[in-house]
Design brief:
Its cofactor is [3Fe-4S] cluster. GO terms for molecular function: 3 iron, 4 sulfur cluster binding; metal ion binding. This is Ferredoxin. InterPro entries: Fe-S_cluster_ET (IPR051269). This protein is α+β, with helices and mostly antiparallel strands and about 60 residues long. It has one domain: Alpha-Beta Plaits. It is built from two helices and four strands. A two-stranded antiparallel sheet has the order 1-4. It has a two-stranded antiparallel sheet with strand order 2-3. It is globular and about 30 Å long. The chain binds iron/sulfur cluster (SF4). The site of iron/sulfur cluster has 13 residues, from helix 1.
């Protein structure tokens, strides 16, 4: 699994951060950082849920 964010589409509303704080982080400038671009197996369901929940569809998973 490889995770990317389209920074031009992300509106920094923090939905993904709330659902998977181990993987997503917003900085003080409201830029989203992916802390684990290749999340370990135990976090993958959580990450998929966060990706599906992004209201802007800014996150992409490559399997
Ligand atoms: S849920 Fe989507 S729009 Fe919101 S911070 Fe995460 S990537 Fe950005």
């Amino acid at each position: 699994m490889k995770l990317t964010v389209d920074a031009l589409v992300c509106e920094a509303n923090g939905v993904c951060v709330g659902l998977a704080p181990e993987v997503f982080e917003l900085d003080d400038d409201e830029r989203l950082h992916i802390l684990m671009p290749e999340p370990p197996a135990e976090l993958r369901d959580k990450v998929r849920h966060a990706v599906r929940s992004c209201p802007k569809a800014a996150l992409t998973i490559e399997e």
